[in-house]
Amino acid sequence: MGSVQRAMRLLETVAVHEYGAPAKQLARETGLALPTTYHLLRTLVHEGYLRRDKGLFFLGEAAERLSSSGARQKRRSTVVDALAHWRDVLGVPVYYAVYREGEIEVMCVSDTPGNPAVEEWADFRETGHAHAIGQCLLSQLDEEARRDHLDRYPVQPLTPYTVRDNHSLLRRLERIRRMEPVTERQEYALGAVCAAIPLTLGTTAATMAISLPAHQADRLLPAARQLQTEIGRMLGSLALSISM
């Protein structure tokens, strides 16, 4: 354990030296004996956590991969915490999804036993026409991208309330006003209503959404509006995180 701690101390010290540092300086700053420092530096270089160039030590590819992975985990944690906060404030399940490389991806869902998320009984990726998440994401695409998606995942009836065909869906998408919540009522699952809020993330189509039991449909739009306000307050700090 002591060797691990000393190695981590060395890595942390190297990390603060953007232009590298020699072994003697690292030994001095970490308080390690010079022979110990040399031994640990050689091991860390061999394993790829450090690299040596002209007598100076820099972070290696292995350490940079760890840093990148840690940053991604931190961003994801930020989103998870935000969704959990909104779930508790609104008393509804909250979803986060993006449209990436031609696919609908639900990245995170936050619910509770008392307010469960809608069960994914039909693949969300293939049924974007039927749920608010998919309709919201498709509404942010251009016409060519929408038609490409529907060529791969054509409209199919899931409930008596599902839009009937591709043409009807495209007309509906054209009528959706920019930055307005998108709602659907029992189109994906009987007994459930949903609303999705479009997010502006550069060129990435993204959305936060909520769902409610159908008998609470009167809460849907007020809760969606409240979520939109909450997102607006935090979007600046979340902008990088929600690109996960």
TrEMBL record:
The keyword Ligase does not apply. InterPro entries: GAF-like_dom_sf, HTH_MetabolicPath_Reg, Tscrpt_reg_IclR_C, Tscrpt_reg_IclR_N, WH-like_DNA-bd_sf, WH_DNA-bd_sf. Residues 1-61 form the HTH iclR-type domain. The chain crosses the membrane at residues 188-212. Residues 62-244 form the IclR-ED domain. It comes from the Bacteria. Gene3D superfamilies: 3.30.450.40, Winged helix-like DNA-binding domain superfamily/Winged helix DNA-binding domain. This is IclR family transcriptional regulator C-terminal domain-containing protein. It comes from Streptomyces violaceochromogenes. The lineage of its organism: Bacteria, Bacillati, Actinomycetota, Actinomycetes, Kitasatosporales.
